[in-house]
């Protein structure tokens, strides 16, 4: 086989992208509970603290919320913090439902001998739920940025996935929607990157690689089978 492994992105690839509209509604409710101005809280959550949350600076979701409250000069009670964490945790869990055909394709890839990996830029709330999803048992190695404290497009995160799969990067396909400069990062690390397009991937997410990508692309996750045939 030319390729021995397929490494996937998570959001916008195996599961749907996070809807900004839906996330803003949840974050607005969280802001109301914490008695923080809505826009300040949303901006701090999505933009100002994303890097440190995705790099695993906090050991719990509660610690993330407490940090944001501190940044915004707000003292929240324990029950308020627990309430908003429950809201965001439930919202996150709903996001981790696989897209149509994903389970079938991953199962088939396994059955014909391919190793499967995952690399995702995500925060602690995803790490807590991931082992209990219907996807986790199909992935041989899952690299979550908050767990390894490295984000895409850092070459080390791709190298770590390849090392854990025991596969040379040149024998790895990387499939992603183009967020986080992940495709150029994969190419720089020696993998073979492929852009996953599709109607859902045209909404909300910031996808810098997708806007300028000149490399190979597929429109459906099932098209991976064409790449390896």
Short description:
This protein is about 45% helix and about 10% strand. It has about 230 residues and is an alpha/beta fold.
* Physical arrangement of strands within the biggest beta sheet: 3-2-1-4-5-6
Mean pLDDT: 94
Main beta sheet strand tally, sense and closure:
6 strands, parallel
CATH topology of the largest domain: Rossmann fold
Large-scale geometry: elongated
Cα Rg? 18 Å
CATH class of the largest domain: Alpha Beta
Helical residue percent band: 40-55%
* Residue runs with pLDDT of under 50 for 5 or more positions: none
The number of helical runs is 12
What are the salient characteristics of this protein?
11% strand; elongated; 229 residues; Rossmann fold; 6 strands; 2 domains; alpha/beta
Describe this structure in words.
The chain is α/β, with parallel strands linked by helices. The chain has two domains: 5-16 and 97-228, HAD superfamily/HAD-like (Rossmann fold), CATH 3.40.50.1000; 20-95. It is 47% helix and 11% strand. The protein is built from twelve helices and six strands. It has helices spanning 20-34, 38-48, 50-54, 61-71, 78-95, 102-111, 124-129, 145-148, 155-165, 182-188, 208-212, 224-228, and strands at residues 5-8, 115-120, 141-144, 172-176, 192-196, 217-218. A six-stranded parallel beta sheet has the order 3-2-1-4-5-6, with helices on both faces.
Outline the fold blueprint.
Elements: E1 5-8, H1 20-34, H2 38-48, H3 50-54, H4 61-71, H5 78-95, H6 102-111, E2 115-120, H7 124-129, E3 141-144, H8 145-148, H9 155-165, E4 172-176, H10 182-188, E5 192-196, H11 208-212, E6 217-218, H12 224-228
Parallel strand pairs: 1-2, 1-4, 2-3, 4-5, 5-6
Helix pairs in contact: 1-2, 1-5, 4-5
């Amino acid at each position: 086989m030319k390729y021995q492994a397929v490494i996937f992105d998570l959001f916008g690839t195996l599961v749907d992208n996070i809807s900004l509209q839906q996330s803003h509604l949840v974050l607005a409710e969280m802001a109301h509970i914490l008695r923080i101005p809505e826009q300040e809280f949303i901006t701090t959550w999505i933009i100002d603290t994303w890097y440190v949350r995705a790099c695993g600076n906090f050991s719990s979701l509660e610690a993330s919320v407490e940090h944001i409250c501190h940044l915004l000069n707000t003292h929240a009670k324990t029950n308020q913090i627990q309430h908003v964490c429950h809201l965001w945790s439930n919202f996150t869990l709903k996001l981790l439902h696989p897209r149509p055909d994903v389970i079938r394709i991953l199962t088939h890839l396994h059955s014909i001998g391919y190793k499967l990996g995952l690399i995702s830029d995500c925060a602690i709330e995803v790490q807590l739920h991931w082992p209990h999803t219907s996807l986790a048992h199909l992935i041989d190695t899952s690299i979550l940025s908050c767990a390894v404290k490295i984000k895409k497009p850092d070459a080390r995160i791709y190298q770590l996935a390849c090392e854990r799969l025991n596969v040379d990067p040149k024998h790895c396909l990387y499939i992603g929607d183009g967020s986080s400069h992940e495709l150029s990062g994969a190419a720089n690390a020696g993998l073979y990157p492929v852009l996953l397009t599709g109607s859902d991937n045209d909404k909300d997410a910031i996808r810098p690689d997708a806007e300028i990508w000149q490399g190979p692309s597929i429109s459906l996750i099932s098209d991976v089978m064409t790449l390896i045939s």
